[in-house]
Amino acid sequence: MNRDNLPIEHFFFTEPNLEKILENLDVVRQQIHPVIPDEELNVEQNFPSVCLVGLGRCGSNIALEVATLVYNARTSYLHEVEYHEKQAQESDLKSLNWIRKKFSIDKKSSSTPLFLIEPIVMLGDLDKDIEGRIRFSSQAGRAQFLEAYRKLQIMDLSEVHAGGAGNAPILGQYLAKIILNKDTSSFRNDSWRHMHSYLVDSCGIKANQSRLYFYIFSAGGGTGSGMASEFGLAQQFSYLSKTFDYRAELNKAVDKRHSFVFEPIFTSGICILPNISGKDIDISEALHINAGRLLTKYVSEEWDFSYNEERDNDEDPENVMQRIRPWNSMMLISNDIMRYAEEEDGNDVEDIDVNTMEKYANQYISQQIFNILTAQAVTTDYDEDYFRRAGIDIAETIRLDANDLFMSLAGPVAVAYAESVVRKKGPMSEVDIDDLFCRSIELPHFNDDTSAIEGISVLPVESERYRNCIQDYRKSQYDSNKLNNLHFFKNCSSIVSIISVPRDFKLSFTAMNRLKVQLNRLFPNTTLKRYALVIGASANLSLTTLIAKSPCLSDDFLTLMVSYMKRCFARDEYRYNDEIDKAIIGFIQGDVFDEEEVEKYFLEYENPAKILDTNWYAIKPMYEKKYRELIEDSERFVSINDIRLDMKNVKNAIKYLREIYRHRISKTNMLSLN
């Protein structure tokens, strides 16, 4: 398939000239790496193996929080190593308390703090004041951080659109499509051309060593929810087009050492779900509908890409490119976790202001990102003297690379997290693995010893029922039969467990084996289980478990999807009762799926006006005019109508849920001829 015959869904611009891509990458490389002495100019600096892309206000805030945390930890590590004697007399570094407690970064601490990898962090928003919002933040040390953290890059997209997306994901998606369909050389802002080459054009080639990309965004908003999947699709389109060798390189003289090689990249959305339950929560709010649209779109695309057996020709690259999905997996983190954490701490959630809740949410998400980053970090991501100074034997680590995550994680993913202070008892350190594992899957709560927020990121079932299940699980001395009948655990396809231990702690075989026993019993039908052991990346023992695919059967996930379908797809006679709710449960559980029955309840296309009311009919032509003005090629015009979800998306989403609902594996039986 050539460039002039792309499917209408994907007019994404990709730079065809490899020479220009390499030039743009060199500019980005010079921006993110400190200046090196003249005698070392011939040494080419590698890109970090990880990139965080924060989109929208929520996503950019969280990505910025992660970068700040990394910077503070690294600064404190280097400071203590080089100026240990002076540190006791110096003033407080004014880091966040939870950073100090989590990483033992304390001026009185005699232990050597950790040093974490530094990812590239790209921030983007449709608000033209994103840079001002970040640079003029009153957070302590922010100005110094922005000056020193060279790997932070701000995507200024204001020349395409200088306002937000009006809390409408379809507008955020359409504006992202304009940005990504437009030739980068026609942007007045040169920095966008360079960042586009890093993020989109060069993914998978030798010159760009980044292999993991995490897109962080809020599902309930307009900008992040709409832009994130479009940015992910553009990157997947560029990567897969190289995989299928869509077009020959225009410049044959380019050094082929920098050309595309088949190295898997792993991309994941980190999706912040809105509050969904509680006495003051109304499920018909627009942010719930927005989140439901994102979830419906993603699982529909995941079904089409990974499971659909109705394809015309699976070997046809054109067919594959029309079925791409934005990420390999999408991690789900509910904002409800903050409310449960406050309730567990004995506080009234009504007394917590929204900024504090958001701060806690950012903390929880940052914790998960850290463990994922350190689990796959390559040695080039660290300071060359780190392992020697810290006394860590790199041979003892068990890491996950991009290919491990690529093969292990797909579809919706939930996170379970807990950590423990390692207590000395004689010559050995001890930790209660059973308790640690149980805390990781509980309702979210604060850990008083470490100030971390622990627990599950998406509730398997309604909170009170789940709380009772966990209590029974503890009382029964961790009998997994109290929990493993829940779809969340029973239908999980794969898990990845990341154990991070302090430098001097030796995790015993017995403890590791006990953890594996717990996981095997709680996830009885899981086909793939992967483990990573990270040494020296934390002052505490921490456990992160990534639970794949089955979260789409959780109450929260289903409720958000169905609320969107009822609001924006349902025929009038079904919009105001619970017939559709019951029908979709029946579609998922039934032995046979009658697709024609779906047509009884739903219209052919989603109706965005159901969220935006009458404004939609004024907005639509205005945004389409913007597209025509910015992309003058009429053959590449895309109408907003073209990116509406349709009934096929609804059917595919139901098929995906049916597939996961029926997930089983047969037990291995011993066969003998004797």
Describe the structure.
InterPro entries: Tubulin/FtsZ_GTPase_sf. The chain is an alpha/beta fold and about 675 residues long. The chain is built from 25 helices and 14 strands. It is about 45% helix and about 10% strand. The strands form two sheets. Strands 1, 2, 3, 4, 5, 6, 7, 10, 11, 12, 13 and 14 form a twelve-stranded mixed sheet that branches. The longest helix is centred in the first third of the chain and has 27 residues, at about 55-80. It starts with 17 loop residues before the first helix and ends in a 13-residue tail after the last helix.
Morphology call: globular
Please name the fourth-level CATH homologous superfamily of the domain at 47-79 and 114-245 and 264-274 and 282-306 and 319-327 and 609-643: Tubulin/FtsZ, GTPase domain
> What is the C-level CATH assignment of the domain at 47-79 and 114-245 and 264-274 and 282-306 and 319-327 and 609-643?
Alpha Beta
Count of strand segments: 14
